[in-house]
Amino acid sequence: MALTEGYQMNNGLTIPKLGFGTFQAQDQECKQAILWALEAGYRHIDTAQGYKNEEDVGEAVKESAVPREEIFITTKLDNKEHGYDKTKKAIEESLRKLDTPYIDLMLIHWPNPIHFRDNWKQANAESWKAMEEAVAIGKIKTLGVSNFLPHHLDALLETANIKPAVNQILLNPSEMQPETVKYNNEHNIINAAYSPLGTGKIFEIDELSDLAEKYDRSIAQLVLRWSLQHAFLPLPKTVTKERVWENAAIFDFDIEEVDMQRIDGLAGRAGSAKDPDTVPF
Ligand code: NAP
């Protein structure tokens, strides 16, 4: 497997198997990290309207030596922008900030934001309609969701004409969300793994050092490889130059099944996913 290799999505398009996270990175720091990532061979950048860095992503993509069509950009609809009209405007805003004619993948960031708690189903259905219209005119290539549990997906599928291709959820050795992963697999939806390093908390799990040593790899490499071997799509974030390369060197070793199971057994050791129906945002 190579860094540019991808998973085929349920619409026939391909998504690179490793993405580059940008949450909590902004301005020059974010831009520089993306430039390093593109230089290291990453071809998939994960941003969101809520990260306030779509402009940085757009600038880095333009400044890099890599043609736009070789880069896969994911962005996410902000929690305040649900509903048909707001979503239509928000898509235009993302296109403007990213300075690109199309978005590769657009996700509804959270299924049940606080502003829409009374009518989240309808708000999602309306947003989806606006997103489907953007697909029809080539402004978005692929649609997906994030933080959706099975009941949110069931509700969306009642009215969706285009099926979501990706569900981006928190997935790492501490939180494997088995029910949602199973649902996604059964519906041909890719499991994209956000916070694959537990936003840094994964390094506190002692057992991982011994296992990493066994494979002569870092903990980050071990955990990202574990994610790939589960057929997840990990999205590690770093703004540190060496780590950009380190996190990409995960395609030339295999974790034995017995060690995969050991890592699976670390559930709950470094935090867990938020309940999307009660998040305070
Ligand atoms: P993460 O990738 O799990 O961990 C990032 C943290 O680990 C940073 O503190 C980083 O530090 C550190 N780190 C990275 N590589 C390392 C290495 N090789 N050795 C030691 N430390 C390392 O965290 P995340 O940002 O929560 O999640 C990743 C991406 O998923 C986000 O950036 C975002 O794109 C996406 N995400 C999506 C959602 C959603 O709701 N859909 C939510 C959260 C995140 P430095 O940066 O200082 O190097």
Which spans have pLDDT < 50 for at least 5 consecutive residues?
none
Number of strands: 10
Classify the helix fraction into a percent range: 25-40%
Q: N-to-C terminal Cα separation, in Å?
A: 38 Å
CA radius of gyration: 18 Å
Structural notes for this entry:
The protein is built from ten helices and ten strands. By secondary structure, the chain is an alpha/beta fold. It has a single domain (16-264), classed as NADP-dependent oxidoreductase domain (TIM Barrel, Alpha-Beta Barrel), CATH 3.20.20.100. The strands form two sheets. Strands 3-4-5-6-7-8-9-10 form an eight-stranded parallel β-sheet. Strands 1-2 form a two-stranded antiparallel ribbon. β4 (44-46), α2 (54-63) and β5 (72-77) form a beta-alpha-beta unit. α7 crosses α8 (219-229). It is globular, with a radius of gyration of 18 Å. The chain starts with 5 loop residues before the first strand and ends in a 17-residue tail after the last helix. The model has no long low-confidence stretch (mean pLDDT 97). NADP nicotinamide-adenine-dinucleotide phosphate binds at residues 21-23, 46, 109, 146-147, 168, 194-200, 218, 220, 235-240, 243, 246-247.
